[in-house]
Design a protein that fits this description.
By secondary structure, the chain is of the alpha/beta class. The chain folds into two domains: about 55 residues, Orthogonal Bundle (Helix Hairpins), CATH 1.10.287.80; about 220 residues, ATP synthase, F1 complex, gamma subunit (Pyruvate Kinase, Chain: A, domain 1), CATH 3.40.1380.10. Strand 2, helix 3 and strand 3 form a beta-alpha-beta unit. Helix 1 runs antiparallel to helix 5 and helix 4 packs across helix 5. The protein is elongated and about 115 Å long. It starts with a helix and ends with a helix.
């Protein structure tokens, strides 16, 4: 049975922890609004450039090395996690999704890691790390360009045959879903009908092949940029939820310990009173 002093120290410690978790919850709540606005503003452009690339590639208007399908013997995974913890199972879910993708290949997959937590959790696996970046190391525009240059260069050089992007999809403040996406080679749309020059309502100058050559690297770069925004917004949402739960749990523990502390103090007072009364009765006798 803990003493009254131990219970008081425990309640004091929990109150300090509750103040920290409440402050972190407020910070995450303020950051998630900006991150969500930036993420939603980028989604329409990402959707539009993806549809245009798939339409161009499927219409037979041109070819590009980034569209070339290979044997997929040398697979790679571009995984995006957070730099810090205290966001529940957010990082673990992303790492688990990446390992599930890696298990589909008979040989170890090369890893391109964004985020310190993913690098820490995967350091003891059989999969080699080709390159790693912190999530918050630099502005996302520069970071996306650097990552796109690295994975695209290795793909064109034949070091990897396929690159799968594993990042978090921001659904809502409560739901963040790990989502795999084949980044390279860029998939053609198999359902898109082939279009001839007489039926196509668009004219590309100088030609569709040149447009593809300009758009495909931008598509890869912006897909990574969009994934960075989604991962950041998902991290803040997961941290907001985790810190909210931690604050509530700390409050419940404080209430329970306060009740136990009051009972212990009352028992000590009652014991002292009984001792005084017993001593007085003994003197009378």
């Amino acid at each position: 049975m803990p003493t009254l002093r131990q219970l008081r120290d425990r309640v004091k410690s929990l109150k300090n922890t509750q103040q920290i978790t409440r402050a972190m919850k407020m910070v995450a709540g303020a950051r998630i609004r900006r991150a969500e606005l930036a993420m939603k503003a980028a989604r329409p452009y990402a959707t539009a450039i993806g549809e245009m690339n798939r339409e161009l590639a499927s219409s037979g208007g041109g070819s590009h090395p980034l569209l070339t399908e290979r044997s997929s013997d040398k697979r790679a995974i571009l995984l995006m996690t957070a730099d810090k913890g205290l966001c529940g199972a957010f990082n673990s879910n992303l790492v688990r999704a990446a390992l599930q993708v890696a298990s589909q290949s008979s040989s170890p997959s090369s890893l391109y890691l964004v985020g310190i937590k993913g690098r820490i959790q995967l350091r003891k696996t059989q999969h080699p790390v080709a390159q790693a970046w912190p999530l918050q190391g630099k502005p996302f525009v520069e970071l996306a360009a650097e990552i796109a240059g690295a994975v695209t260069g290795d793909f064109l050089a034949g070091k990897v045959d396929q690159v799968t992007l594993v990042s978090s999809r921001f659904v809502s403040t409560i739901v963040q879903r790990p989502t795999p996406l084949q980044l390279l080679p860029i998939k053609r749309d198999p359902d898109a009908p082939a279009k001839s020059a007489s039926t196509n309502s668009f004219e590309f100058e100088p030609d569709p092949g040149a447009v593809l050559a300009a758009l495909l690297p931008k598509y890869v770069e912006f897909t990574i940029f969009q994934a960075l925004l989604e991962t950041q917004a998902s991290e803040f949402a997961a941290k907001l939820l985790a810190m909210s739960n931690a604050t509530d749990n700390a409050g419940k523990l404080i209430d329970d310990l306060t009740l136990v502390m009051n009972k212990t103090r009352q028992a000590a007072i009652t014991k002292e009173i009984l001792e005084i009364v017993g001593g007085a009765e003994a003197l009378k006798g």
